[in-house]
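So, who can interpret the following?
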Amino acid sequence: MRIDLHTHSYVSDGTQPPGDVVASAAQAGLDVVALTDHDTTAGWEEATAAAVRHGIGLVRGIEISCASDGISVHLLGYLHDPADAALLAELERSRSSRHTRAERIVRKLSADVPITYEEVLETAAPGATVGRPHIADALVAKGVVSTRDDAFADYLYTGSPYHASHYAPDPVTAVRLVNAAGGVAVMAHPFAGRRGRLVDDDVIEAMAAAGLAGLEAHHRDHTPEDVAHAEQMARRLGLFVTGSSDYHGAGKVNVLGENTTAPSVLREIEERASGVPVLWP
């Protein structure tokens, strides 16, 4: 069984509709795929219909953008109740802050680059959480850069003169919220240093004490040493490990199924969750 537990649609920063992500997963030979858009479950309904249509298992999830002392932490939540009031309130606060952040970044950029916030909005799907990837897409559309990666390297990296911060929950708080909503919390790409600064191991230990269930060890942004570190820490803390593509459609080079999760781990996620079930074909 081939299981990929980390993908994005254009509801957040992917480039395909949720249904197309699921269809692509089926075409790629996956048996189970998780849709984990940033800070929103808006793609769940379309993904569910597509999973039924294409005969593929679906894990409904989310990726929560967190921060610890200014360092970005991404938390995957699986099979939580999408109507949980406490988690919804925190996600809405984060999404609102990300929208204003995008506007502030564009305002700074527009002093040097011919870009408007309206042009950024044109790159985002209705209801999407607008963020730096959409600004990058607008820069590509304007011919300022050739690719998203170029946009981040030249203009949108953390620490650039155009950077702006946004609200993000503490990862320990986010773990507790996911668990309280009946979900299962897994830290995404915990040691991907190429993405920026990393939290110390003691932050991950605090997340584990709060109920973190697993670490996404197998990810293209991890070196073999990073994978070994994640596996060792998971053993020490009693966590399981996952592997995923972090697929974004044409937005990144990541390929569906390039890293996968063991069926035994999916069974554990399914047994722990009480929010929504895995959708099996």
Q: What stands out?
A: The first helix runs from residue 18 to 27.
